[in-house]
Structure formats: structure tokens, C-alpha cells
Specification:
heterodimer; A: mainly alpha; MetI-like fold; 0% strand; globular; B: mainly alpha; 10 helices; 73% helix; elongated
């Protein structure tokens, strides 16, 4: 985590561009002295390693600096958008799991049949669709053409389209992963034993296949949550969803480094937290893991 | 039996699509009715017609010609990004698999650190710092794929180095470089081909995404992601503008996925590298 911060701090100095130049380009008639003064004020004159070390030090104290353009504190600026992003990610993940898990399970159960082949072809197709394109198509169909749903904004109705976009795209991946995980479970010896005991199929699945299957599902859910956090950076832009991804892209186009740095660090923090939570859930499902 | 034939069919569909697209990319200047950058070839924002198969954009440029020329860019971007990712991933993965002790520990820590982030985010961060351009997008996508390739190669090398031929190489006195290049490399080529072909699809998707948000190809380059961004601005007046570049992306990515899946099943039916 610390290493990531330092890296992020150092990364900027590999760059040819300079935010001050972008800023100055928008004003007219600026003297070199003024540019120097702005740089001094923003702390851009110190040597790179010193800036990076300073940056890590300040981040440790909870100070992410201020955005170059709005002069707002970066952390508060980003945190204010985070709930929107979480809302979208959670809706998307739930939707993706709701579509992908049953389909993947169905494909695994009827492995080799035409249904399996059909489902897997659809999911390869789904994996191949760019999320932002699907978003645009949905947007044109439902907002522009039928005018069911507002085009942009972050009211409760506007969450539907971006969440559906993310949900559909990632359900294809989930279906594939669920299928291979469930095939593994269903070919285990204990499933055969359960069947040969004469248990009804429903009980075999509910009692014996469900629990080992759960571990796979939790892994998949965690992975998908991470992917979705990444994928949504672009999807937010399609729908003008007022989340952290949109802010980040905006900052990237403007070379607003403190914001970009803050964004990356915040993201790293979220991902680390999620993977920690996942480990806890594993232990809860399967206490054997604690011992190993 | 039917099962196998179906798998086979998928691969053939994928190959055919690929050949058509590669052909379209190579012969784009001959096939395209207009130059992709020539403006006012017809009325602006005109819907698809015989003169303009995919319609025209705001500047009256012929979309069919633009999409066709975009195939070149897309394949080129995919190729360079995959090459960067595969080469650097192979180097890192091989060294990590060959070395023992702190070298391996250090390399694997670094890989895990990068791997824990979503790839698109790594690519975004890199482009943000390198500056928006198609070249930088390719580099960023390539680097963002490196940890994935490195991990695959690492696990393959671990298996290979425990085989007798590796020890026999040691016994005859081959040095580390010779062991890696002459003994290990030929044996990791098959899995390398599989991950590379599957990597193509992710690389193309990622690069198109970057171009779409303006961090990749810059206008007037007819990159498909950039074309989609254009189409987005005109989606009320001319929704067809964003339809065709999208179809094009889906076709290419689908083709690479189908071929890659078939290859991985053919070369190693048990192991699946696909996440």
C-alpha cells in the first residue's frame, strides 16, 4: 500500500506534460515569473524524490492535497462521489450474479448438451461486447427512443441503465466461471456417493453441492466486484453518472495530478479492503481454512 | 461426438471472421470507396445508403471507409499491446520461475501488487501519466497485461523445471541463460500462444475503451473506440454512427475469443487460463 503511494507520487515525473501549462493556456498573457510563482505555490519546484516522499508523508496524515483546478481538498472531493460509485457497483454486482449464477449452474448441470453449448456461445458473445458500447445502445433505445428513463443524472431511475449495462456484461463472465467451478464440484466423489445412496436429485444439489459451490461463488463475487469497480470507470462516463470514475477521467484529461493520485490510492484501499473481507467470509464458510 | 464437432465449428467461425477482418485491414485502401479522412463525401449525418453503406458523420466523412481503416489500427494496437505484454511477462515470469530466494520473492510480490488492481485501472493510470495518445494507450494496455502473462508463464516454468530434461541440461553444464532460452522457452511456447490469442481480445477491448474516453487515439484517427465516442455525441440525430464501430469491435473480439478458447482446449484440455 505504501509502496503504491510512493510509486504513484513518482509516476507523475515521468510525464512530459505539466498542469501549470494547461492552466496557463486558459489565461492570456502570463509572465514566466507568474508561472514560477504558481509552481512554487503548488510545490512543483522541489526535486522529484522529495516531492514523492513529501506526498507519502502527507497522505499518511490524511492530506491528499488539493485539486489543481477547483482548489478543493482531494480526499473530500473524491469521498463525496464514492457513495454513488458504490451504489452502482453493488447494483451491478447483484444483477450480474442474479443472471450469471443460475445460467452458469444450468450449463454445468447439463454439461455437453445443446443448452450448455448455446449458453456458452452467448457468454462468449457477452464477454466480447464492450461495456461502453452496450451502455450507449441501451441509452439510445430506452432514453432517447422510448424516453422511459432520463438520459443522465444520478436520481434513483438513472441507476437502472448503468447497472443493467454492468450487470449484463459481467454476468457473461460469471456464467463462464460458475460453469467451470460447478463442473468441478459436480464431478467430485461425494456427489456420486450421494447419488448412489439414492438421494433425490434436489437433495443432492441442495445439501451436497451447494456448500462447496458457495466458496466458488464467493470468490467469483469478489473478483467481479473488483472488475466492476474498474469497468465502471468508463461506464460512468457513458451515463454521466456522478461517481468517482467520471471525476477521475475528467482529472486525467486535465492532468490534475493530485486528484488522479488520490483516486488511485483510494481505489487501492477499496480493493485491499474487499479482498480482506473476502478472506473473512471464506473462513466463515469453511473453518478449515483458518488452520491452513 | 456432436460435442467435439460443435467446438470445432466455433473455432472455424472464429478463424473465418479473423481472416475476413485481416483481409479487410490489408486491402482497406482498395476496398474503401473514400479516403477515411476526406470530408464532405456526401450530406452530413446521412443514414446508411448504397453510396454510404454505414452513413456519414458530422463532417460528411464516409463511415464505411472509416470503420474499414479502423480495422488496421485496431489489429495494430492489439498486436503491439499483446507483444509488449507477452515479451515483458515472459521475461519476468521466466526469471521469477527460474530464480529462487529473494529474486523470486521480490518479483512475485511486484506482480501480485499490480495484479490486485483491475487491469483497465492500471492502463488508465499509466495513460493518465504518459499523456493521451494511441501509442501510449498501446504501451499502457501492454504493461497492464504483463502481470497476467507473467503469472501464467511463472506457473508453467515451475512445472517445466521439475521435468528430467531440465536437470539433464544442468548436468551437461548449461548456464542460466542457456537453460532459460534453449530448454525452457521452447516448452512454454504452446501455453504462450493460447494466452496471447486470448490476450488479443482483452487488449483490443481495453484500448477501445481508452480511446472512447479520449485517452487513446486522437482525432481524426478512425480508431473504433474513438468512432464510438463521435457517435455518442450524435446519438440523438444519427444513432447508426455508433452501431457499426461497436459491431466491428464485437466481431474482432469474438473471433479472438473463439480461436483462443479452441486453442486452449486443444493444447491443454484440463487447464484453463481464462479467468
Amino acid at each position: 500500500m505504501l509502496a503504491a503511494c510512493f510509486l504513484v507520487g513518482l509516476l507523475i515525473h515521468l510525464v512530459p506534460g505539466d498542469p501549470v501549462e494547461v492552466m496557463v493556456a486558459k489565461m492570456d498573457a502570463v509572465s514566466p515569473e507568474q508561472i514560477h510563482a504558481i509552481r512554487e505555490q503548488l510545490g512543483l519546484n522541489a526535486p522529484p524524490w522529495e516531492q514523492s516522499a513529501n506526498y507519502v508523508w502527507r497522505v499518511l496524515h490524511g492530506d491528499f492535497g488539493k485539486t489543481i483546478f477547483g482548489r478543493e481538498p482531494v480526499l473530500e472531493f473524491l469521498l463525496s462521489r464514492l457513495p454513488n460509485t458504490f451504489l452502482l457497483t453493488i447494483c451491478g454486482t447483484v444483477l450480474a450474479l442474479a443472471i450469471g449464477l443460475p445460467l452458469g449452474f444450468l450449463a454445468a448441470y447439463h454439461r455437453g448438451s445443446w443448452l450448455d453449448n448455446l449458453l456458452m456461445f452467448i457468454s462468449v458473445l457477452g464477454v466480447s461486447v464492450p461495456a461502453f458500447w452496450l451502455g450507449l445502445v441501451l441509452l439510445v433505445t430506452f432514453s432517447v427512443h422510448f424516453q422511459f428513463i432520463p438520459v443522465a443524472g444520478d436520481g434513483p431511475a438513472s441507476v437502472i441503465l448503468p447497472a443493467v449495462t454492468l450487470g449484463l456484461v459481467y454476468s457473461a463472465i460469471i456464467a463462464r466461471m460458475t460453469r467451470s467451478a460447478m463442473i468441478e464440484v459436480l464431478t467430485e466423489d461425494f456427489i456420486r456417493t450421494a447419488r448412489s445412496k439414492g438421494l433425490p436429485e434436489r437433495l443432492v444439489l441442495m445439501r451436497h453441492a451447494l456448500k462447496p459451490g458457495m466458496i466458488a461463488v464467493v470468490t467469483i463475487a469478489g473478483l467481479i466486484f473488483g472488475y466492476m469497480m474498474g469497468g465502471q470507470v468508463i461506464v460512468e462516463n457513458v451515463f454521466s453518472w456522478n461517481g468517482i470514475g467520471r471525476v477521475a477521467i475528467h482529472a486525467m484529461l486535465q492532468r490534475d495530478y493530485p486528484t488522479i493520485q488520490g483516486f488511485i490510492i483510494l481505489f487501492a484501499a477499496v480493493i485491499v479492503t474487499v479482498s480482506l473481507l473476502l478472506d473473512l467470509v471464506y473462513m466463515w464458510i469453511d473453518p478449515r481454512i483458518i488452520k491452513s | 461426438m456432436k460435442f467435439f464437432r460443435l467446438r470445432y465449428l466455433n473455432a472455424i467461425i472464429g478463424l473465418v471472421i479473423l481472416i475476413v477482418i485481416v483481409g479487410a485491414a490489408i486491402f482497406a485502401p482498395m476496398l474503401a470507396p473514400f479516403s477515411p479522412e476526406r470530408m464532405f463525401t456526401g450530406p452530413r449525418l446521412s443514414p446508411p445508403s448504397w453510396a454510404h453503406l454505414f452513413g456519414t458523420d458530422t463532417l460528411g466523412r464516409d463511415m464505411f471507409s472509416r470503420v474499414l481503416h479502423g480495422a488496421r489500427l485496431t489489429l495494430y494496437v492489439g498486436f503491439i499491446a499483446v507483444t509488449i505484454g507477452v515479451v515483458s511477462g515472459t521475461i519476468v515470469g521466466m526469471i521469477a520461475g527460474y530464480a529462487v530466494g529473494w529474486v523470486r520473492g521480490f518479483l512475485m510480490r511486484c506482480i501480485d501488487l499490480l495484479y490486485s488492481f483491475p487491469e483497465i485501472l492500471v492502463a488508465l493510470a499509466l495513460v493518465a501519466f504518459l499523456g493521451p495518445s494511441l501509442d501510449n494507450a498501446m504501451i499502457a494496455v501492454g504493461i497492464s497485461r504483463t502481470p497476467f502473462f507473467a503469472r501464467v508463464i511463472y506457473s508453467v516454468v515451475l512445472v517445466e523445471r521439475s521435468k528430467p530434461y531440465f536437470d539433464s541440461g544442468r548436468v551437461v553444464g548449461a548456464g542460466p541463460v542457456r537453460l532459460m532460452l534453449r530448454y525452457l522457452l521452447p516448452n512454454i511456447i504452446p501455453p504462450l500462444i493460447v494466452v496471447a490469442s486470448l490476450g488479443f481480445s482483452t487488449a483490443i477491448l481495453a484500448a477501445a475503451g481508452l480511446s472512447f474516453i479520449g485517452l487513446g487515439a486522437q482525432p481524426p484517427a478512425p480508431e473504433w473506440g474513438a468512432l464510438l465516442a463521435d457517435g455518442r455525441d450524435n446519438m440523438r440525430l444519427a444513432p447508426w454512427l455508433m452501431l457499426y464501430p461497436g459491431f466491428a469491435i464485437i466481431l474482432v473480439v469474438l473471433a479472438f475469443n473463439l480461436v483462443g478458447d479452441a486453442l486452449s482446449e486443444y493444447l491443454d484440455p484440463r487447464q484453463r487460463w481464462r479467468r
